């Protein structure tokens, strides 16, 4: 069965010119006809039956969309009405609450005014009673004094009765508020029940309406689907009928085309036979011409052979001349060889002289190194002494400041709790836990230098190195090497020795020559310093990360460390270039260096064999370059961004970070702020006045000690009243009310 697209294409080819024709005019005509057919099809689609069918579909789709839009509007209106019905209850409750708050504000204002007026009236009565006490002291007749005291008692009872009446009024008002609160709770419960009922009703109605609208929408879509199916079915039947007619027409045209092709094939056979005969005649003619050219080439060959014989004789003569010239050059080479031997003798003398100078320079280097170490020890000693003095002075000043601060805080607590009667709020004294100079976060995080770690590790089991380590340890006593807690010291020492033996290409050849006269430990320390400088290893953290790359994969996986990655050839190229720089040494030094490397390889093989039996297994010496490459690649970005300081740097107290010192000392002055100082000044003035008042009263009491016993009793009562009055002036309002109550309820002994 042929495809419809293929049938249409064949139909286009049969009905006219083809776009695949070899003639250009036919291809142009075929494209023009195809464009005209497309334009005609579009015009028929716009004016014919297709347009009507599309309009019907659009009309049906608009009906379904119209049904959806109407359903959406009805459901939205129903939902909004339900929301209004539910929210109306909340709006009414908010209105009632707003009115209640307004009434509460008015009542609160009235109560405040009543309290202020009552307090003012009570203050006036109290002052009046106080003034009468002064006049009562001037009376000398007991009966008058008794009458005066009785009047004072009545006045106090009257004032207390007014206070009790005010309290009873407030209690009645509070009871009314409680009743109102209960009623409001009941009303709110009723509103909530009503709201829940309306919400349930809204949910039910919306569910019912949603079902109805959904059924209507489904019916509209079902109707639309049925109409579309009928329309498409009719179109499909029409298209299938047209397709059958086109297939019959295509079969007829195909038979005609087959006959035409057979005729064309016969014509091509005849044409090819004629062309073959013509080509055969032409080739025979070309063969005759080529035979003539061959005869000419043979004649040319004979002529060239004669020329070559003549050239051979000429070259033979030149060879004889070259032999004579070669013998002359040999004699010249012999003479130059003698000159070269003389130069070699001079070179040996110069090398001997340079070796002697090298030995002298080595001795000078040792002497300068010893002087530098002595100077470094003295510098470290003075730095330690300065740091100790600075710390002692800091701690002394800090202790004195803390004592003064704690004393001031204790006095402030007494003032608030005893004099003012307030609850004391403890200030923030967390900074007082600090002892010694303030250290920044960078100084706290700074680790032990790499040189200290190397000397400490390499000194294990060596008596000579043990005498130098305490100097370094005394300088950094408070920060021990944390790497010794992470890895076994023997393992670290083995890793450093492996690095020293296998990373010799990182050390300059000049430095190796200078280190040759030194001992093995000193050579190892200096080599490790140079290697660490090349690898940018500055502290114990960098040494620990480097050590993880020299641990075997199995051990690293068991201990949780990340094994070193594989490394490509650039490291070997770098090592080759480094060795090429030192290729200027003589053969004896090269042989000695090779022997030393061979001995080092043997020693390293024995060491690796011993370490294999230990808990931590190291990598093979041949993998050292790969591990170094992995370490350099992993730390290159970090070293570039961190901008580390040089490793060998002498620091002192002037180099410490003092940016936090001013803020630390400022905290001592901020505990007692200006507000508290003003409070203390006002309290001092009040206490001075209070002291003066007490002194005057004490003076008056000493003057009135002479009268009889009843008068003393009266004066004692008066003095107690004065004391209560003084307490009221210092204390708060609550204490004044209690003092008045105690004054009014005192029992006087009648005379």
From TrEMBL:
Keywords, ordered alphabetically: Coiled coil
Occurrences of domain Dynein regulatory complex protein 1/2 N-terminal (ranges): 91-192
Domain Dynein regulatory complex protein 1 C-terminal stretches: 663-705
Residues spanning the membrane: none
Region annotation Disordered: where it falls in the sequence: 1-27, 49-68, 636-656
Composition bias type Polar residues, residue spans: 637-653
Superkingdom to which the source organism belongs: Eukaryota
Keyword Coiled coil applies: yes
InterPro entries: DRC1/2_N (IPR039505), DRC1/DRC2 (IPR039750), DRC1_C (IPR029440)
A Gene Ontology cellular-component term: axonemal dynein complex
Residue ranges the record marks as coiled coil: 182-378
GO biological process per UniProt: axonemal dynein complex assembly; cilium-dependent cell motility; regulation of cilium movement
Family per record: Belongs to the DRC1 family.
Name of protein: DRC1
